[in-house]
Amino acid sequence: MKIDRDPLERPDAETRKRLIESDPALFRKLVEASGMAISIHDENLRPIWGNRAWTELWGYSVGEILDIPQEMLMPEETLELYWNNVLSTVSQGERWQGEYVIRARDGRLHTVKGWFDPITDESGKVTCVIAIKQDLSDLIRVREALGSAEKSLNFISDCTSDIFFRLNLRTGLYDYLSPSVERFSGYSVREYQECPMLIRKIIHPDWHDYLDRIMEELLAGQVREEYEFQFIHKSGRVHWASQRHILLRDKNGAPLAVEGIATDITARKQAEERLRASEEKFRFLAENTADVIWTMDDEYRLVYATPSIKDVSGFTAEELQGRPFKKMITRSSIAKFEEALARRQEAEARGDYTLINTLELEHIDKSGKIFWVETMIKRLLDDKGRPHGFQGVSRDVTLRLEAGAAIAASEARFRTLFEDSPISLWEEDLTKLKFYFDDLREQGVTDFRAFFRDNPEALLRCADLVTVVDVNKATLALLGAASKEELFGNLDNVLTESSMSAFAEEMILLASGGREYCGEIANRTLDGDTIWVMAHFFVPDEYKDTLSRVIVSLLDVTPRRRAEEALMDSEERYRVLAENSQEGVIVMQHGAVRYVNESMLRITGYSAGELEAIDFVDMVHPGDQHEHAPQFARLASGGMNESLGSFRVLTRSGGTKWVNMSVKPIMWGGREAQMLILTNITRYKALESELLIAHAQMENRVRKRTAELSKANVRLKAVAEERGKAQERIQALTQQLIRVQEDERQRIARDLHDNVAQDLSSIMLKMETLFDGLPAPDLELAERGEAVADILRRTIASVREIAYGLRPPALDQLGLVQALTNLCHDSGNRYGFDVDFFSTGLENITLDFDVEINLYRMVQEAVRNICRHAGATKAVIRLVKSHPDILIRIEDNGSGFPMEESLARADAEKRMGLRSMEERARLIGGSMEIQTLTGTGTRILFKVPIESARRHG
């Protein structure tokens, strides 16, 4: 607003001087009123006077400052500056100015800018110093905040993908572009500066008109909230951009420039496009899906349904709109719906709106027909989380339920087929086996073939983990079982040692993710017979992750296997006959010679080609042709399968030889043929007469010798019976001797522990208290007493060790397995080598007392031999049940020994170690095998039948 008034008159110099001189205190008032801290100091910079601003800056009066040590008023750096720079400068009559720090009364540090002006007298000597201070603390904080804001703005500008810009509307050029423009468009700020028209170049041609309209609007002072357009990135890709502007005007209000932010919204546009396509797709699915998607109000009245409701019910959505849900279902389904409704009301009363009801209900279509519908219902919530109707999906499941009924019927038919199938069928549950494989993988096992090879006990565990769920009638007949229960549980009763390799392949396949196996394995019937079967197992798709159901079929191929073995034997015999036999062999097929061996050529003197051209009957001696004419006729017709007996043949040289011929039917080239076998008996015929004479003489001698042998046989039979009885008595006496020996060991061990050890303990106690209550004995006497006590301690330990060796108490108290565990642990610790003991399968077997002690003694003797002689660092002992035997395997990595020499030396030295183990094994019905060589370690296998080892009664 403009005000019209006369200009003020300027005061002249004389007036100004008069005003100042008329009031001498005017200058002091001016200094006091100043916002600058002004002070007067003496020549040593000690304060003499300060105005109000100076006092407020320091918080002290001049007098207080003079009384306070300067170290409390100024930091060390300021003091050094004060005395070294400021004082020296003003002392020379020069002005000093600069920034430094002071400490106010409240303890805060203030950065000030100071001016020190020296005042001199006529001689030039400094008389006082006038100082002016300006508090820069607020200014520095503002400066730091401004610098921080500038750094933040630069960081945001450099790091953000958005562009900050200022566009001059009059020149069309950018006054400012943030560095992020290079990430945005691919072009650098410099390229924009060097090419003013670059902005128009990168705008997509389809948007040039749009850009022109924007410029016209901006020049006209019109600004939109947002601008969106497409531009071409330097890479050639088309991007979307969004710009938001503010319009800057000059002092006359004319548009001057725009400042704004540009954002790459390509990803948003693509997402919007995908969202639009997705909405169209889901709208299409909702309108065309066979399922019905619907919403209902809080009273379960239909509000909306997709068009597919007509295909399901015959009603259109408009016809059912507003109809209560209960009127769409049958009476029997209303009760189920009300139960679900009650559960929902209970949940919502607790504030739980997440419940989803899944119901199968009978609906009534437009024609009155009943059909089944599966419906899922969930609660709808508004923006504030309040219940607002229901949403659901319904689908016609009539066909599915009918299919389910058909499946149930099919299952019944399957069960009938399963039970009545002539092939052995098994249903097995391998769930525990699957868990075992998973545990092994977690432990790092990847090569299951190597794992099972190195850990045979793991394979036995796999067999224990196979559960037989069901078998059919053919299986009972195949394995000789009276009922299914005899086969339920595991495979222990049917697997044999020879079939473990095939079983291992099955386990390796399953552990590696395989689902099907086929191969021949040997099984054992419950009667103990071995049969060969073609085993095929298959894991259905739905059980491949759990192995909870596996179907196994067994086809008995024992007859075929035996036939193959017989055929292999027969083929081998034919091959040997044909290639190596001394008899002549001719293969004839439909009267023609197909094969002749070397012996036939040697007998007849003809070549193979000549024999193929000659009729075999022509080689027969004329004197024998008539006698054997019927047989030769059948030979020519191919119907002969017998021996012709002896006859003569004519050789190529004209000689005569006696032969014996037999004919066998064979297959040759896939067709029936006959194999003629000729034996040259010429020499035997010549000897026949001599043999007849010798035979007569032999018969006479045989009759005499037979009478003598009959008498000798009677005597030998009596001796054999006596030896058998003696052997039985020896075995019984040996068993009794071992039993008595063990009983005696037990008695001696008990006496040693209960009597000798206790008495020795009492003596030791008395020795330890021998001098109690007496004057201090002589030192030598005390030492002798202590020596006797030490001997007693060692004796007690030896007695207890002997008692334990005679009869380990763990065997009676804890059983065989724990006793062997203790034995292996103690032996390993005592002799400094690793003993790996493992037992499995004996948990449900109660062993006879004699069997237990003999098994223990056999293992004890083997471990003792390892400790004393083998020089081993590791021993492995396995006690396992492998039907029908109990197996004990003992292996060490020691030096081994020549077994025959060692046994002979032991017999000569009357040592019974190995013989004792062998005898103990034999006494309990078992056997012992030893495999050893010098430098290869030793392997011992004890095999004891379970039936003879089990405790009876």
UniProtKB/TrEMBL annotation:
Subcellular location field: Cell membrane
Domain PAS stretches: 149-222, 278-348, 570-639
Assigned GO CC terms: plasma membrane
Gene Ontology molecular function, alphabetical: phosphorelay sensor kinase activity; protein dimerization activity
Keyword line: Cell membrane, Coiled coil, Kinase, Membrane, Transferase, Transmembrane, Transmembrane helix, Two-component regulatory system
Record flagged with keyword Metal-binding: no
Top EC class of this enzyme: transferase
InterPro entries assigned: HATPase_C_sf, HATPase_dom, PAC, PAS, PAS-assoc_C, PAS-like_dom_sf, PAS_fold, PAS_fold_3
Record domain PAC: where: 96-148, 225-277, 357-409, 515-569
Keyword Ligase: no
Pfam entry (one): HATPase_c
Membrane topology annotation: Multi-pass membrane protein
One biological process term in Gene Ontology: regulation of DNA-templated transcription
EC numbers: 2.7.13.3
PANTHER family with a match to the protein in the record: NITRATE/NITRITE SENSOR PROTEIN NARX-RELATED (PTHR24421), SENSOR HISTIDINE KINASE NARS (PTHR24421:SF37)
Protein name per UniProt: Sensor histidine kinase LiaS
